[in-house]
From TrEMBL:
<protein>
    <recommendedName>
        <fullName>ClpXP adapter protein SpxH</fullName>
    </recommendedName>
</protein>
<comment type="subunit">
    <text>Interacts with Spx.</text>
</comment>
<keyword id="KW-0963">Cytoplasm</keyword>
<dbReference type="InterPro" id="IPR046404">
    <property type="entry name" value="Adapter_SpxH"/>
</dbReference>
<comment type="similarity">
    <text>Belongs to the SpxH family.</text>
</comment>
<dbReference type="Pfam" id="PF13743">
    <property type="entry name" value="Thioredoxin_5"/>
</dbReference>
<dbReference type="InterPro" id="IPR036249">
    <property type="entry name" value="Thioredoxin-like_sf"/>
</dbReference>
<comment type="function">
    <text>Adapter protein required for efficient degradation of Spx by ClpXP under non-stress conditions. Interaction with Spx stabilizes Spx and exposes the C-terminus of Spx for recognition and proteolysis by ClpXP.</text>
</comment>
Amino acid sequence: MNKRTLLENPISPSTLTRPIELYVFVDPLCGECWSIQPLLRKLQVEYERYFTLRIALRSSLPIMNSKCTQKVEDTLACEQTHSTFPSIAVKAAEFQGKRAGFRFLSKMLEYSFLKSRDVTSFSVLVEIAQKVNLDVDEFIRDFSSKNVLRSLQVDLYMSKEMEVEHAPTFVFFNENIEDEGLKVSGLYGYEVYEQILEELLDESIIPDLPPSLDDLFHRFDTLTTAEIADIYNLPERSAERELKKRLLQQHVERVTIEDITLWRKKQK
């Protein structure tokens, strides 16, 4: 599981300032992968200067229906469902930028595990692309492109090389490319991942101060009360009180799905 064999493209200069590479393998249809979102977001807020995050998909290689490999402008050709569509859609979203891919995956998990929508449906995936402000026409074109399928193949190749058998799985690499990656399968407490970063860096790590709430919502679209409380190290009741103030000021909106409350920036 040597990193040198996994990177087909050179690392961009911006990633060289971060000594750790973190690969997180997810399955868009896995409930436990929904549960890692709060953990990953807090890691990004507090320690992103130490690592570069790469989301990789662990799912079966798609065998696209022949109708979906025809002219992609004919969106009705893909008015169907397939278990591999969510993985393809994440990759299509990533073609509009890394942040776009994160936003799409987050919203897709929300649709699947909170709203109980069928994210194997092409039409639902297009709806999600609209919700996260992607270029929908570009998303539909990329959805059936060979480049997206190649990108998914790279993820599958990496999961094989890193011997990833389950999702979610975290794989950490330090600056020494001769060292083996440290693989952690499953989901553990936040402190475990902090400890791993410290051990790989061989130094104490200092969390960054959280951004303003406006900046946080700009980055993560929707957040639960518990996530916000955890990021700002507040009692959940205090976080809810502050959010309700912002609700009255029309800075945020509240969305309740079943027994979970989500907050987002007020839509204009």
